[in-house]
Amino acid sequence: MISQGLGIAMDISKGGILLQTADAIESSLIALAAIDRKKNLFKIKGRLAYSKKTSIGTYLSGIKFIGTEKHMIKFIVNLVKEYNYYGYNLFIRWHNDEAPPIPHHVT
After folding, report:
1. Is residue 11 assigned to a domain?
2. Per DSSP, what are the bridge partners of residue 60?
3. Whole-model pTM above 0.90?
4. How many CB atoms are closer than 10 A to CB 38?
5. pLDDT tens by residue, 6-62
6. I need a surface site. Which of 16, 29, 47, 71 has the fewest CB within 10 A?
7. Is residue 105 part of a domain?
8. Is there a contact between 19 and 8 (Cβ–Cβ < 8 Å)?
């Protein structure tokens, strides 16, 4: 069964993303997609690592990205740019000593 829903990115790293959703994510394979302010679609595949219900009734789901590192970084940079443009604070967590890439233009 295929389903869809909306989520809020709470935390992001090179390995994956933490989403807050109104409903539980039950599929193990996930396609994440977002649209930027210029109406460009960017997407990445992921695998559900865990999902737990919070005390306020929402769900927190950890999703591990699937794909090349270049594709993951491109998705992260695009998502962070959009969150920043709209004034949201998205926590970025990197698992190594490198600074996160912040290109002036993402292609």
Report:
1. yes
2. 20, 52
3. no
4. 5
5. 888 888 888 899 999 999 998 889 999 888 888 888 899 999 999 999 999 999 999
6. 29
7. no
8. yes
